[in-house]
Fold:
Amino acid sequence: MTPERRRRFWGWGWEGEGPAPEQQQAIARLLAARFALPELRIAEPPRLEELRLPRPRLRPPTAIFSDAPYDRAAHTYGKSFRDVVRALRREFTHPPDLVAFPRSEDDVRAVLDWAATAGAAVIPYGGGSSVVGGVEADVGKRYPGAVSLDLSRLDRVLEVDRTSRAARIQAGVLGPALEDQLRPHGLTLRHFPQSFEFSSLGGWIATRSGGHYATLYTHIDEFVESLRVLTPTGTIETRRLPG
Structure:
């Protein structure tokens, strides 16, 4: 049985993929020559067993929560240069105490209700491609712990209206899976930011996503007709009208 591939907990992409050692050496030589530097040393990526994660301050109340080292490490940083450098230095100072993987709206509501009772901070996590520190669990002393709310299981196109070319879609779906589900209907969202492979619809909307292939009329806010958002104090739902 082929093992399920996992994303790197320390940076962009999948485990086991990327430049081969000889390609890395060639890149290092090229950079050294370009900037008149002595020979560059290639940093070895961290291994889970090397990390010294702080002990979780919260206990998983149900099965949708995880305190596994891989899950906590993978939700510590986004994908900026600074994030990758800190990960390569094995600096995982502020991992989330727990990672929640809701599969339904009721699960999300249960996580928020539990966190409110426990006084824990909740940080939404879509694809983790943030480059502005938005997924980090450095919440200070105001909270007794932090939960990363991973929406990757909320990844379905729930409804398609072919006549009005509208769809109702869960926030956690990543770009390729979204296009795969729209294609049988003869539709495309036509939104292709640079982070397309590992970023989510919810993240696009929250950040007003753009990019090289997502500008002007393919900017994400041009496509949003209505939203249903769960918050710690209730549900916000805007009227569903044609764009």
